[in-house]
Amino acid sequence: MTTGLRITGSGHYLPGPPIDNHALARVMDTSDEWIRQRTGIESRHFCPEGQGASDLALPAAQRALESAGIAPEDLDYVLFNTMTPDYLFPGSAPVLADRLGCIGVPALDLRAQCAAMIYSFQLANALIASGEAERVLVVGAEAHAGFMPWRDWDILAGERNAAPSPEDRERATRHRALAIIFGDGAGALVLERSPRPGCGILALDVHTDGRFVKKLYIPAGFRTRPFISERTVQEDTWIPSMDGRDVFRQAVTLLPQSVRRVCHKAGVTLEQVDWFIAHQANQRINDAVRERLGVPEHKVPSNIARLGNTSAATIPILVDEMRRDGRLRDGQLVCFLALGAGVHWGSVLMRI
Ligand code: ACO
Q: 117, 148, 212, 237 - which has most CB atoms within 10 Å?
C-alpha cells in the first residue's frame, strides 16, 4: 500500500565553470591521476564568493516548479536540505521560500548531510499520508566552497599565475583528501500525491548512528565562546574533519545491507529494481556497493566525474538529469540509497 507520492517536477543548477583536478593541483599537492583513480572525480563546480546555498537553490526550485506545472503558492511545504546553510540561523528554507514567494508556507532546513534526500522522502511521504500536505518542494543545495582549505581562488582558477604561500599550500595539502571530493550545486524535486494507482513509496529503511558524529564534522560551533574567533581560523576548526577511510568502510557496509532490507520489506527482488540511484561521494564506494549487491553497472547511474560529491544536492540533481534525458520513466521501480555525516543512512524504494 503506497501513499501515491510522485515526483512531478525536478530542476537543478550548477554555479560557475567546471573546475578540473589540474586546477586543484595549483594550490595543494595532488594530481589529476590520484583524484581520478581514488574517486572517479574529474571536475566540480564552486559557488562564487557572496553566493550561498539559497542562491543555488532558487533557480533549481524554479525549474522544478515549472516542470511540475505549479506555482510557488501551490506548495504546502518546503524542505531545504543543506549542510552549508547561508547563515548559522535561521535556515536557508525561509530565505528560499521568501525569494520564491511562498509566504506563510512551512519551510524548514533538514540536516542529514548526504543522506538528506532519504529523510526528505520519508518526511514528505508522512506529510502526504497524514493529509498535512499535498505538494512538497524538496531542495538540496550546497556551497562547500566556504570550507575549502585555500584562499587563493584566483590561482586555482588560473586567473593569476603565482604560487600560494608555503603555509597556505601546506594547509590545503593537509586537508586534500576532503577538499578534492566536494563540489557545489543544487537540485530540487516537487513531490505530490498522485491518483495514479501503484505509484509511490513501497518501503523505507532509514537509520542514524550518532556514535560516528566525529568521523565527519565541522568542529567549530557553539561549544566555544565566542563561537567564532581567531582560534577558529588558527586551528582550522572551520574546515571539516573527516576520517575518509572509516566513512568509506561504513558506506560500503551499511548501504548494501539497507538496500537488501528495503527490498525485502517491499517483497521485491534486486533484479526487479530498474535503477539504484545512489548518493555520489566516491565512484569506488558505488562500485563496491554495486558489486556487493551483484547488480549490473548500467543500473547504477553516475554523475560524480562531472560534479564531485554535491552532498544533499546529489540525488535531486541526478534525478533531474535522468528525468530530462528520458532515462527515468513512469512505472519504473527505483531504489534511492545514501549515507552521510551523522552517520545517517538508508534507502527508499519507489514506484515512480
Ligand atoms: N592527492 C594525493 N594524495 C592524497 C590525496 C590527494 N587529494 N588525499 C590523500 N592522499 C594521500 C594521503 O596523504 C595518503 O598518503 P600516505 O599513504 O603517504 O599517508 C594516501 O593518499 C592515502 O590516504 P587516504 O586518506 O587513506 O586515501 P583514501 O584512499 O582513503 O581516499 C578519500 C581518500 C577519497 C577521501 C576516501 O577515503 C573516501 O572517499 N572516503 C569517503 C569519504 C566520503 O564519502 N565523504 C562524504 C560523506 S557524505 C557527507 O555527508 C558529506
A: 117
Is residue 198 predicted with pLDDT exceeding 90? no
- For residue 1, the model assigns a pLDDT of 57
Q: Which of 139, 170, 193 is the last residue of a domain?
A: 193
Rounded-to-10 torsion of CA 286, 141, 176, 161: 130
Express each pLDDT in 242-288 by its tens digit: 999 999 999 999 999 999 999 999 999 999 999 999 999 999 999 99
Number of domains in the chain: 2
Expressed as residue numbers, the domain containing 344 is 200-351
pTM for the structure as a whole: 0.97
Mutation to probe ligand 1, out of 82, 171, 248 (largest number of atoms < 8 A from CB): 248
Taking the centre of ligand 1 as the mean of its atom positions, its distance from the CA of residue 243, in whole angstroms, is 8
217 phi/psi in degrees, rounded to 5: -160, 160
310 lines ligand 1 (CB under 6 A): no
Tell me the per-residue pLDDT of 128-144, one tens digit each, with 9 for 90 and over.
Answer: 999 999 999 999 999 99
Regarding the beta carbon of 281 and ligand 1, being less than 6 Å apart is answered yes
The grid coordinates of residue 150 equal 585555500
114, 199, 263, 335: the catalytic one is: 114
Q: Which atom of ligand 1 is nearest the CA belonging to 113?
A: 50
Q: Are residues 132 and 263 in the same domain?
A: no
- Together in a domain, 175 and 209: no
State the CATH number of the domain containing residue 154.
3.40.47.10
Going from the Cα of 79 to the center of ligand 1, the distance in angstroms, rounded, reads 31
**279 part of the active site:** yes
